[in-house]
Amino acid sequence: GQGVDEPLSATGFRQADAAGVFLSNVKFTHVFSSDLLRAKQTAAAILGKNKWCRDLEIKCDARLRERKYGVAEGRPLADLKAMAKDAGEQCPSFTPAGGETLDEVRERARDFFEFLCQLAVGLGQKEPEGPGASSRSSGASKEQFFFPWANHGSKAEPSSEGGYSKMLDANILVVSHGAYMRNWLGYLVSDLNCALPADLSKSQLSSVSPNTGVSHFLVQLEDGNLSKPEVTCVCLNQDSHL
């Protein structure tokens, strides 16, 4: 939750370093993190292993915080499940006293995603600098980015040959929390019809990401149209680095 702002454990730091090594050859244009300490430390560890953008500013945003669990925060997961059972409900739909509903979390996720889309459109509409600068239909020169996947097909297996490349206006790293990200995915799938990997099962779709699990989405905004983003999930909760 939000109320107990503990740092990463020794295991957490090892996992964050492993994620950093896995993403070390990915050049990010922006980094956003939850303002909770464990997320900020994870983002810093990932950048610390990066070959291209170790000095990139980490921008913290409260909209990326974990779901608020009210009276259940700081207590074992078994206590939350017991509270839900006593209320005749099941996790994760159960909302403890003082906690956020799933709809409230999804609204935070929607708000932040729309902010990212506006950011990307603003970058895409910038004029190229200098004489002879290359330009595309958006009015900006795009940059080629490399990702640690063999391709962007359904399985998105890690590549031993440097991964695949993609021309993008922005390549954004977002570091958040498990329950929050599951709600964000729900928004992308239910509201935006996000295209999913063909081999993704229903149980995988509803599962919580492991610590430092990596999910990769491509977002296309045709002609800067913010109302109709096309979202493709390349991979979900990738944990091959752990």
UniProtKB/TrEMBL annotation:
<protein>
    <submittedName>
        <fullName>TIGAR bisphosphatase</fullName>
    </submittedName>
</protein>
<dbReference type="GO" id="GO:0045820">
    <property type="term" value="P:negative regulation of glycolytic process"/>
</dbReference>
<dbReference type="GO" id="GO:0004331">
    <property type="term" value="F:fructose-2,6-bisphosphate 2-phosphatase activity"/>
</dbReference>
<dbReference type="InterPro" id="IPR051695">
    <property type="entry name" value="Phosphoglycerate_Mutase"/>
</dbReference>
<feature type="binding site">
    <location>
        <begin position="66"/>
        <end position="69"/>
    </location>
    <ligand>
        <name>substrate</name>
    </ligand>
</feature>
<feature type="binding site">
    <location>
        <position position="38"/>
    </location>
    <ligand>
        <name>substrate</name>
    </ligand>
</feature>
<dbReference type="Pfam" id="PF00300">
    <property type="entry name" value="His_Phos_1"/>
</dbReference>
<dbReference type="GO" id="GO:0005829">
    <property type="term" value="C:cytosol"/>
</dbReference>
<dbReference type="InterPro" id="IPR013078">
    <property type="entry name" value="His_Pase_superF_clade-1"/>
</dbReference>
<dbReference type="InterPro" id="IPR029033">
    <property type="entry name" value="His_PPase_superfam"/>
</dbReference>
<keyword id="KW-0378">Hydrolase</keyword>
<dbReference type="GO" id="GO:0043456">
    <property type="term" value="P:regulation of pentose-phosphate shunt"/>
</dbReference>
